[in-house]
Design goal:
alpha/beta, KR_dom, NAD(P)-bd_dom_sf, binds NADP nicotinamide-adenine-dinucleotide phosphate, two-stranded antiparallel sheet, oxidoreductase, Rossmann fold, Ketoreductase domain-containing protein, oxidoreductase activity, 9 strands, seven-stranded parallel sheet
Length: 257
């Protein structure tokens, strides 16, 4: 039996990872802030799939929360074979409309927590010569899109660089770049989504299935779905100014502050 630790496991993409990994027979460690929701999810996964489902309540924007998950990942008595760094959020508003505290909170959750948890997991996985880390970024990593896009660009660069450094160690790392996925993300960030065409929406369960196939194939970057692969091909060729114009509108229709 192997164990997977998933951050942001209670909703959206993280919940889809937890469902799929539990269905595949992995024990799971579920990380998020809402304890009640975590407990309900753990009970459901245990009852449905017969796996051990552990709850670890932690706020990854705080030192205490990051340290608690680091400690769990470093515990030699309960090894973690797969880490999914998925917890994340969008801020409501554009640059200068978002408070500095919220900008920094995003960098802590998307970058500092990902760096520290990847390091803790990879250190212990390297000792056992096996393990995998999936860091959830976004296609926004390839677009000029404020702190969100910049933080996700960091996730991609960091993960691919670390994967290269750890090649041959038995530890695999992959950055996952979803396009628009129907989750709680946009509502939590106060973003209107009515200007996003229907064909751009992805299903979280299908996204996770494609991501795990890419991980099996040894990819260090996964952009699931042919629509987004094609779009990202166009993005590579398009002028930066044009990209900025399109990106600053799509999915960034904020409600009243
Ligand atoms: N949905 C999309 O269109 C999309 C596209 C590209 C990339 N992504 C990325 O995918 C990841 C998951 O997003 P999602 O769409 O699944 O969002 P979601 O439905 O809003 O779920 C977010 C999850 O993260 C947890 N979380 C949020 N802040 C946290 C914190 N400070 N500490 C610990 N856990 C925290 C939430 O639980 P609690 O509130 O209980 O903590 C929840 O379980 C994010 O990294 C996001 O940037 C999403």
């Amino acid at each position: 039996m192997t164990t997977a630790l998933i951050t942001g496991a209670t909703a959206g993409i993280g919940a889809a990872f937890a469902r799929r990994l539990a269905a595949d027979g992995h024990d799971v460690v579920l990380v998020a802030r809402d304890v009640k929701r975590l407990r309900e999810q753990a009970t459901e996964l245990h009852d449905r799939h017969g796996v051990e489902a552990e709850v670890l309540a932690a706020d990854l924007s705080e030192e205490k929360g990051i340290a608690a998950v680091e400690a769990r990942l470093s515990d030699p008595k309960q090894p973690v074979d797969m880490l999914v760094n998925n917890a994340g959020f969008g801020n409501k508003g554009r640059f200068l409309e978002v408070s500095m505290a919220d900008e920094l909170k995003m960098l802590t959750v998307h970058c500092e927590a990902v760096l520290r948890l990847t390091s803790a997991a990879a250190t212990s996985m390297k000792g056992r010569r096996r393990g995998a880390v999936v860091n959830v970024a976004s296609v926004a990593a390839f677009l000029p899109r404020g702190t969100y896009g910049a933080s996700k660009a960091w996730v991609v660069q960091f993960t691919q660089g670390a994967a290269r450094d750890l090649a041959g160690s038995g530890v695999r790392l992959m950055a996952l770049c979803p396009g628009f996925v129907r989750t709680e993300f946009h509502e939590r960030a106060g973003m209107g989504t009515d200007n996003i065409p229907g064909w751009m929406w992805l299903d979280a369960d299908k996204l996770v299935a494609a991501a795990l196939t890419d991980l099996e194939r040894g990819r260090t970057l996964s952009i699931p779905d042919p629509r987004y692969k094609a779009l990202m091909g166009v993005v590579k060729l398009a002028p930066r100014g044009l990209l900025g114009g399109v990106s600053s509108k799509a999915g960034r229709k904020y409600g009243p502050q």
